[in-house]
Design a protein that fits this description.
single chain; D-Maltodextrin-Binding Protein, domain 2; 5-stranded mixed β-sheet; flat
């Protein structure tokens, strides 16, 4: 079952923003998700463009970002559509000024093969992991449950688990299933290609990215195979040389 998140937004906490602007320093909260914005973060392009000192702080979900902004510890934050909508509806002093990304189909509800979970209705009585309460993932899951005739509070146990730990929790049967996003979806070459297509979707066509990714995988595999064969040949020759030396010593 696939879920869709409306988008990832950047919100501004209005309280105290003037003083911080004068100090030319700001703390930005971000989530453990992959998007093109990470390039600007890693290369410090925002610092270069604004002249600000930027302190980056990672959070597990939009709900945590909103709480940090409310406490004054974070001035700008990445928040899903659900988080910012809930905060503004409560009258909290936040302003949405930039739609960072349209996540679309980059997330999915994942369960182990043979778990018996094939539809949303099959989640009754199950434990489902999400990244954070109050996040867009949380909202989408609850809406899907209600559409399937389930009560999110009584029929399903929803628990918080960071994206990076959801897949291990499913494998270890600590939860029955969970909502994951790229790049945390189950591994393999397919997941890697999906991640590349998503990240480079505005730069190159999907076909070109997939072809490049598959070519890289083939190249890496051939290199690994070649190195492995060479290692074996060297080992065998070394062993053969050692045996010959030992035999000559015994003869002498």
């Amino acid at each position: 079952m696939k879920a869709s998140m409306a988008g990832l937004a950047v919100a501004l906490a209005l309280a105290g923003s003037t003083a911080l602007a004068q100090q030319k320093e700001v703390t930005i909260g971000y989530q453990d998700m992959l998007d093109p914005y990470r390039h600007a973060q890693e290369t410090k392009e925002l610092e270069k463009a604004t002249g600000y000192k930027i302190n980056w702080k990672q959070f597990g979900g939009g709900g945590e970002v909103i709480k940090a902004m409310a406490s004054g510890g974070v001035q700008l934050g990445e928040v899903g559509s659900a988080g910012i909508a809930a905060a503004v509806s409560r009258g909290e002093p936040y302003e949405l000024f930039w739609i960072l990304d349209d996540i679309g189909d980059a997330e999915a509800l994942v369960a182990k093969n043979g778990s018996g979970i094939n539809t949303v209705a099959d989640l009754k009585g199950k434990k489902v992991a999400i990244n954070a309460f109050g996040s867009a993932v949380d909202l989408v899951l609850r809406v899907a449950l209600k559409k399937a005739g389930l009560d999110p509070r009584r029929d399903v146990q929803i628990v918080e688990v960071t994206f990076a730990n959801i897949a291990p929790a499913i494998r270890e049967k600590r939860v029955d299933c969970g909502v994951l996003v790229i790049p945390f979806l189950p591994g393999g070459v397919g997941a890697q290609q999906a991640m590349m297509v998503y990240v480079l979707r505005k730069t190159a066509s999907a076909a070109s990215v997939v072809a490049f990714g598959v070519g890289m995988q083939v190249g890496v595999t051939l290199i690994d195979l070649t190195v492995g064969v060479l290692a074996l040949l060297i080992s065998f020759r070394t062993l053969a040389l050692r045996d010959a030396l030992r035999a000559s010593r015994r003869t002498a």
